[in-house]
Specification:
Layout: H1 2-22, H2 27-64
Helix pairs in contact: 1-2
């Protein structure tokens, strides 16, 4: 799950970069767009990591019983 989410987030970022290169916009506008997409990708990856960690901890607690 984590691998998929990280890959998805990277795909979004790469898509934003490619889209920005092909779309007419100023350099500053493009850079801000890329920054926002990277932040979104980081947040999604952090959420996925937390969900995976919580799931693993729950499984570990079940296995201990």
């Amino acid at each position: 799950m984590l691998g998929f989410t990280v890959g998805f987030a990277m795909g979004i970022s790469l898509g934003a970069v490619i889209g920005g290169l092909l779309a007419p916009s100023s350099g500053e506008t493009f850079r801000e767009s890329v920054r926002r997409q990277i932040e979104v990708a980081k947040l999604e990856a952090a959420k996925a990591a937390q969900a995976t960690e919580e799931g693993l901890l729950a499984r570990f607690e079940e296995a201990k019983q």
